[in-house]
Amino acid sequence: DDEDIITDNTAGARIKELDQLTMQIKEQRNAVHERLKESNRLYREKQISLNQYKDSSSLLKAETDRLGKLFDSLGLLAREARTAQRTEEANNRKTNARRASGGFGGMRVNCDTMDGRWYGLFTQEEITKVSQQFDYRTVNDDAARNKLFTAAITQKNNNWIIGDEKKKTGNAVYLQGGFLLNRETGLPVHLPAGFLIVHKDIIGNDGKVQLTSINTNGEQAWTIPTGLKEFYDWQLRGHQLVITGTDNKDLGAGRINLLLVINLQNGAVAVYDFFTDKVRE
What we know:
By secondary structure, this protein is an alpha+beta fold. 32% of the residues lie in helices and 29% in strands.
């Protein structure tokens, strides 16, 4: 019956149900252990006979074995459910990233992990509001001057927990800064040494996107102005980032005129204008 209930629920509800059942089994195992201790005490104090003690021990051992097998089965189901949940979350991230418009908010997230540490781009005020449990959150504040913070991250009960001490690393400030998402994976882009940050040059609708490569110490390798208010599309191609967008006010919505090819190793940029059919210097 328990399996029927579990199967009919969503992944999140299934995990919750399994955790509750596991806790119940733990409580039952503890109760059996206490009964066994009580049986041993009664026999030591000669309040029950040897036969009574053996009968009691045999029954309690059988119950312990039964509960142990059930506990192991629930553990296996819980691991499978969490794996399914992680797969579902990953697929949702990929789908959302592929559907994302070039709007600045859909291009980035404010949290990431690398080499066993957590990294976040936040203001001094916003960093105090970050949840202890890790997620790929996005903060939309067009005046936010974000700095790079880092902290330890550890796994607890299949969740990733961010350490309490979040230290600022590097001195740079990024207006509306966030980690650029990979549209194929839905996860932030990782470079061999660090991250790609997208940020704006000025506050407001006229702000243009800038792209910065940093390492995990917050040190910048390069920063380039893209000249675009937003990206129409962006794709990783080996050590290059290919971006399309529009900077021609005479073109209608959804029409692009620029192709940018950025060398992620050194920040070199090649720009081609489809409208004029020329390479820009």
